[in-house]
Specification:
Elements (H helix, E strand, L loop, with lengths): L7 H6 L2 H4 L5 E8 L6 E9 L2 E5 L16 E4 L9 E2 L5 E6 L2 E6 L3 H19 L3 H4 L2 H14 L12 H28 L8 H11 L4 H26 L14 H24 L10 H15 L18 E10 L7 E4 L11 E4 L43 H4 L5 E12 L2 E3 L23 E5 L2 E4 L4 E4 L3 E6 L2 E10 L4 E5 L22 H5 L16 E5 L4 E5 L11 E6 L5 H20 L10
Helix pairs in contact: 5-6, 5-7, 6-9, 8-9, 9-10
GO biological process, one term: adenylate cyclase-modulating G protein-coupled receptor signaling pathway
Organism: Dictyostelium purpureum
GO molecular function, one term: enzyme activator activity
């Protein structure tokens, strides 16, 4: 029996505390001594390309930390076919080119498991050309090159935005190229203890472990591509709802950018599949979505800009008077109801509202729970029948009727004037209410609307969009809106009942500049409810007499409100949106009052 040479540097390298964390298998077994002494207890370790055996420790079967091995077997130099079981129970042999090692396990399970690992390792080592790997110094240089291109740790994102998608695909492509080159090389290097020292060992262990580049790239691919797929699919499913709250080209700037981002994701997805998954078949996924998004982008590009939209050009020049006609109650009448609060804010939850009367008493109203039935009505005793003004002699009623509390008749309720894109209620119809905090500030609604770039704007009643198709009122302090759609064929404004907005939250927010305005910027994209929204169903309105009158269309099956004006008349042709704005201004004021944004403005009848 030939005694194999034991290298001093390897004995020091295999000191137990240095390798005990880098072991594939360990067990206490027996081996025959080289001097023929019979079986001796030895603690065996399978460490990369070596089987290493120690004397048992003093207080434990495991060696002491500073203990060097009794010997080692280089599996690269072993013969696969001759490493096998022996006839004697529990015995097997490891066939080194210079010696046969006889080992006896403590049981069959230990023998079978250890022998299987040995044969697998010997076979793998036999396929490696150590001369090609070169010296440890050469391996060190190559590993350092991998470190620069696949650093430890390899930090990869969980989410990738559309503008970074192309860069991410290129980065992942480069990582895959480096990995495909490094992986087989490192799998060979990690088999040899001679190479796996210091920094090389750390990098090789990381590279092949659960935190290495391969699993990191798989996790990154899964999360990023899954996010892209969900985002593209959700956009496809919800794209039709985006038009519910967009009217001019400026309002579509955010969704247009979003759709272009989805096209970037589709392109990046296909690019990734072509370059990083070369073994998979080419995919035609998202071709339908791509065509759909392209169509919508083209459609949105053709929508009219608010800067280009103009009201009717064939109007009579000068001032046009609009007369509002409705029921004139001859009994108790409302006065102006204004707002009283301890400070200048008008958005607190509870505020005291007052109505002027002869006694100077002011009823208190809960702003947040107020509705039309809970409004305080104060008798108007400031005028007598003899002082009342009538629009015609036919409107006068017998003296007895003037004292009846519930009788009414059609008559002029108020008048507006329209000229040069401005709608004004003359001063003789405007009630002034002063704040009772002593600072003299006015709390009434300002009855004036000015039109420009597709919007009617008021000082404190919000804005009304008009694009020739939809008439939409909104206010910056509430998400509640009033909408009518224009049916040109029947010259009718049809009321659209509010519905909760649903849809994808876009990753790109729109911004308005000084020259253009979008509905979101005018009404406030972060508007919140001050209280429950009004549930009012408004009647439809129809244009008559070549654009000089507006008639209320009340359907008994729709539970529509029938207060305020029954119809409007003008001495000239008026843009339909202007007539509807006059008709809806009292309703806008009531809505603001209900929500808790401003004071109540009620006309004198």
């Amino acid at each position: 029996m030939v005694k194999t040479e034991r290298k001093k540097d390897l004995l020091e390298q295999f000191q137990y505390e240095k390798i005990k964390g880098d072991v594939s298998y360990s067990s206490l077994m027996k081996k025959t001594g080289s001097n023929g002494k019979g079986f001796l207890d030895r603690y065996f370790l399978l460490h990369r390309n070596y089987v290493i055996y120690y004397k048992p420790g003093k207080g434990n079967i495991k060696p002491d930390d500073k203990q060097e091995p009794q010997g080692y077997i280089n599996l690269k130099e072993c013969i696969y076919e001759d490493t096998k079981e022996q006839k004697e129970p529990l015995q097997f042999q490891i066939a080194h080119k210079h010696r046969i090692y006889i080992i006896k396990a403590k049981d069959d399970s230990t023998k079978n498991q250890f022998l299987t690992l040995l044969k697998t390792r010997i076979k793998a080592l036999s396929l490696i050309n150590v001369d090609q790997l070169g010296s440890p110094e050469k391996v060190q240089i190559e590993i350092n090159e991998y470190k620069e291109k696949l650093p430890n740790p390899l930090i990869l994102p969980d989410r990738v935005s559309p503008d970074k998608a192309k860069d991410w695909v290129n980065e992942m492509r480069n990582y895959n190229i480096i990995f495909q080159k490094a992986d087989p090389h490192i799998k060979q290097v990690e088999q040899f203890s001679e190479y796996c020292k210091d920094g090389v060992k750390d990098y090789v262990d990381w590279f092949s472990g659960p935190e290495g580049p391969r699993l990191a790239m798989i996790r990154c691919e899964e999360t990023v591509l899954t996010n892209w797929v969900e985002y593209i699919t959700k956009t496809k499913n919800e794209i039709a709802s985006y038009e519910d709250t967009r009217y001019f080209k400026e309002d579509y700037s955010d969704i247009t950018k979003h759709l272009k981002n989805m096209l970037l994701l589709i392109e990046a997805y296909h690019d990734y599949m072509r370059t990083c998954r070369k073994n998979t078949k080419p995919t035609d996924r998202f071709l339908e979505e791509k065509a759909l998004f392209d169509d919508y982008i083209t459609k949105y590009s053709r929508i009219q800009s608010c800067m280009d939209f103009k009201l009717d050009d064939d109007l009579v020049e000068g001032v046009s008077t609009i007369t509002c006609i409705g029921e004139k109650k001859t009994g108790p009448n409302n006065s102006v109801i204004g707002l009283s609060s301890s400070n200048s804010s008008i958005c607190s939850n509870k505020m005291s509202f007052f109505a002027s009367n002869q006694d100077g008493n002011y009823p208190t109203v809960d702003l947040m729970n107020l509705n039309s039935d809970s409004m305080p009505f104060i008798p108007d005793t400031s005028s007598e029948q003899g002082n009342r003004k009538y629009d015609s002699e036919d409107e006068k009623q017998p003296d007895e009727a003037s004292t009846a509390p519930s009788q009414s008749s059609l008559g002029t309720l108020e008048k507006w004037e329209y000229s040069n894109n401005s709608l004004i209620k003359p001063d003789n119809g405007r009630e002034e209410v002063e704040n009772n905090n002593g600072n003299g500030s006015s709390l009434n609604f300002d009855p004036r609307w000015d039109y420009s770039n597709g919007y009617f704007k008021s000082k404190n009643m919000g804005v009304v969009l008009w694009n020739g198709k939809s008439w939409v009122w909104s206010h910056i302090k509430t998400s509640y809106k009033i909408r009518f759609d224009w049916i040109a064929a029947s010259q009718t404004f049809t009321f659209v009942s509010p519905k909760p907005r649903t849809g994808l939250s876009l990753s790109v927010s729109s911004q308005s500049n000084s020259s253009t305005s979008s509905l979101s910027s005018l009404t406030g994209s972060n508007a919140t409810k001050k209280s429950n929204h009004p549930a009012t169903i408004y009647p439809d309105w129809q244009i008559k007499d070549n654009g000089s009158s507006l008639i209320s269309i009340v359907s008994p099956n729709k539970n529509q409100t029938t207060d305020n004006f029954s119809h409007l008349e003008s001495n000239n042709k008026i843009p339909p949106a202007v007539l509807l704005l006059v008709a809806m201004t009292p309703h806008i004021q009531k809505s603001l009052y209900h929500i808790g944004i401003g004071p109540k403005y009620i006309t004198n009848n």
